[in-house]
Each structure stands twice: as C-alpha cells, then as structure tokens.
C-alpha cells in the first residue's frame, strides 16, 4: 500500500513538472519562403531568441568582414550559396569590444584557413576568432547562434 501511495505521489509530482515545462516551452515558429528570401536579400535576423538560448540569422556577405569573437555564442554556419575563404582560431588583430560579449578586429593571424562553399557546415565554438577573409559573393548562409 505504501509503495502505491509513493508511486502516486511521484507521478503527481512528475505531472506538475511536465505541466510547468509545457508552459515555458516556446511556440513553434514558422517563416514562409518569401520571408526567408527577403531576409537573405539584406542579411537579417530571422529569430532573435530573446526567450530561448538560440538565434537564427539569414546572413549575406558581399565582401570580406571583420574578425569576430562571440564570448557566449557558438555559431553553426550552413552555406547555401557562394563560397568564401574562412579563417578560424589564431589571434584576432586589433580586437575591440563592439557590444556586450562581442569583439571585432581587422583580421585573424595564424588561424586555420578553409574554403567554404554551398552545402558546407562549420561550427565555431564561442571565444573562437573567425573571419570571412575572401568572399566570392554573394555568400548566403544560415547561422544558428547557440548560447
């Protein structure tokens, strides 16, 4: 009898936890093809992640960029079109804070150089310098930023 009562209490507690999690789960987010296409035309944030630990960017590069270091965000990059010379690791040249947890510089020295093209995926962990050194543009790519 005691085991049955304890099992019932455990199940009731589990139901409370599941209900609380269900209330805090963000809703499903959908972006129609037209919205996505418009976002890639200018390079825009699709999902800002204000209530989650991730963001989704529809990114576009027409020219090389700056060295970037994100102290909290890991970038998961999926190249949809175009190609680029992408440098990771090494040392960011002339690093300057540009926003909370964000640093930009002019280049990366002594990093790993890769050629990224359509279909490639690269994961850049937080605190890792990275740089779009050369762009055979435009380069369209999704970035999922995970915090």
What's the short story on this structure?
Helices cover about 20% and strands about 50% of the residues.
Total domain modules: 1
CATH superfamily: Jelly Rolls
Describe the global form.
globular
Q: What is the gyration radius calculated from CA atoms?
A: 21 Å
For the report, how would you describe the main beta sheet?
Answer: 6 strands, antiparallel
Mean pLDDT over all positions: 89
What's the N-to-C terminus distance? 47 Å
How do the SSEs run, as a string of H and E?
HHEEEEEEEEEEE
Q: Helix- and strand-based class?
A: alpha+beta
Q: Which fold name corresponds to the CATH topology?
A: Jelly Rolls
Uncertain stretches: 3-19
Helix content: 10-25%
DSSP helix count? 2
The CATH architecture designation is Sandwich
Number of DSSP-assigned strands:
11
Tell me what the structure shows.
- The protein has 147 residues and is an alpha+beta fold.
- The chain has a single domain, classed as Jelly Rolls (Sandwich).
- It has two helices and eleven strands.
- The strands form three sheets. Strands 1, 2, 4, 9, 10 and 11 form a six-stranded antiparallel β-sheet that branches. Strands 3-7-6 form a three-stranded antiparallel β-sheet, with no helix packed on it.
- The N terminus is likely disordered.
